[in-house]
Amino acid sequence: MCESCNSFLQLYNRYEFKSAHLYSFFPVTENYFMTTYYYIFSIMLLTIIFILIRSFILRKKNAPVRLFNEALKNENSGHFEEAVITYETALKEINKIRFHGTLKNKIIDKIKVLRTILEYNNNVRFTRY
Known about the structure:
mainly alpha
């Protein structure tokens, strides 16, 4: 190797990297700073994967939807008391899962309407006799 190359290599080996941006604010070295980025990224990635898997599993179970359909059949056949009980059970299941917001609103509205119908039927029954 020539002298100029040797002198260049010696200068290069003696040079210390001093950053003037983000790393200067933190007392830890750059390697630790980068590893924390990797840990944060992996934790975020695992959280997203967990949430996606949970949502797919909860969509497949659908116990509240099954109960809603059963209550709707009871309501259409005229069994209002059974329909109210089934709607309330479905509402409890939805509160456990906290996944179906629109279905929860539909069930609450159905329960209000069915309770009004039941009160009306009970009042009509008492006034006829």
